[in-house]
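#data-curation
PF: Archiving a pair of folding outputs for the training set. Convention for this channel: one message per protein, sequence first, structure tokens after, nothing in between. First:
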Amino acid sequence: MEAARRVAEALGVKNHLFLELPLRAIGGSALTADIEVPKSAGDIQSGIPVTYVPARNTIFLSFALAWAEVMGTGDIFIGVNALDYSGYPDCRPEYIEAFENMANLALKKAVEREIRVRIHTPLLRLTKKEIIRRGHSLGLDYGMTHSCYDPDASGAACGRCDSCLLRKKGFQEAGLPDPTRYCEGHM
């Protein structure tokens, strides 16, 4: 949340809405329950990992959809990726297309043709290398961003979870320095 605040502020976002979503009450994931986040020596887990949060992107998109209608827009952006990712089912193109179709049936303003809901996924078909390069070319300060599934108390990335491994790989393949602050010994 703190990283999101810093990025929004740096980009001059006018309306940055923070909602408390008590996903811990639902559990079912290493990110929302007392389940260990898998760490490896360099191999990404195969299959849908325990870091999958049940219906996470559906929940996020549903809240974004409600706010978009109130704001009078149908444009919603989400940073899902279907190439270099951990295998989450709600990051696939067919999921996004299905949600967009549902959204246009669900909103008053869409049914009344005041807006057309479009789910924008600018990162969907990019590799991590391409994402890193795109952000770099746009002047993004990756030192302000955060990817780790299991940071330490100071916010340093663990360097061994799937998300850290994908991030490291992306910077390495892009030929750019990784500004991430990792825990001691996990650069």
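PF: Second:
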Amino acid sequence: MKTIIIDDEPLARSIIKEYLQSYSEIEIVSECNDGFEGMKAIQQHKPNLIFLDIQMPKINGFEMLELFDDPPSVIFTTAFDEFAIKAFELNAIDYLLKPFNKERFDKAVQKFLQQATSQQTQSVLETAAQSPGQQNRVVVKVGNKIKIIPVNQINYLEAADDYVKIVTAEGSFLKKRTMNFFEQSLATWHFVRIHRSYIVNTQLITRIDAHEKDSHLLLLSSGAKLPVSKTGYSKLKEVLGI
């Protein structure tokens, strides 16, 4: 079984390496200082398991995992907040709260080997994404590069098959998420689902025109025109107070 250690603290990585010596079936194929290195190493080695810190420079552990359509199974090593710990507990993936000892490490590894799956990793991401600390930006992969998009720079989002197209002044970017996910996670940022296929930044609305029966057209300051369904119009009126 191949594993990768991703943590910006050298001491934390050395402790995990020391504890892993008890597991002859687990081979460490790479060590990484941050999420950028981690993404490349995962693409290269395709590990069965990763030990992942959450609070790291550049992009955090959650954001790195989101860049993969099928993320590897994970044991988190973290000093993260109570919200994230609840997310792990709810979805049956273990975590190691720093500082941890060998006994606690062994318990996490055994639990992981018996229970953890990549589907559980996705469940953790869904839950953790509701944390305020995870809602102020969106991280996307553009080729082999990573782009960080502040939420306030998003004009609107559009459904695109299994992806969501994130439209900004710089262009559009694809993220493998659902419209329902963004509808919930962006609600506090003045974003409204105006149509089955569109979520809009209400700060950019310049006009709403009547269109066909029970529908409207919305004009943004960027010049974009988006359809508004009957249900979406009701939501808009409520949010805008009209």
